[in-house]
Amino acid sequence: EGDARYLLEDEQGARVQVVSQGLRHGPSDVIAALARGEAVDAALYYFRTALRFETAAPALQHLNRVVAVGVGARDARLVRLSVFGVA
Length: 87
Fold this sequence. Notes:
- About 10% of the residues lie in helices and about 50% in strands.
- The protein is built from 1 helix and 5 strands.
- The chain has a 5-stranded antiparallel sheet.
- A hairpin with a 5-residue loop joins strand 1 and strand 2 (about 15-25).
- The chain is elongated and about 45 Å long.
């Protein structure tokens, strides 16, 4: 389990705080390889997260009412998330 908070900024300078609560698990050798920064096929482990957004930017106010889920993959130096709003 893990929680992350981060700030996104769009091209116009509008900021969005993201709160992500997720799970990543898999076989111990796969998790160890991820911890070492090795490339691991994302199909070998489970990485999902629930996301909420908060912004004061008028053009992005709709994000304050969105719950999203993300499917993640860990690369050597970054995390990749595919994020989908829940209708």
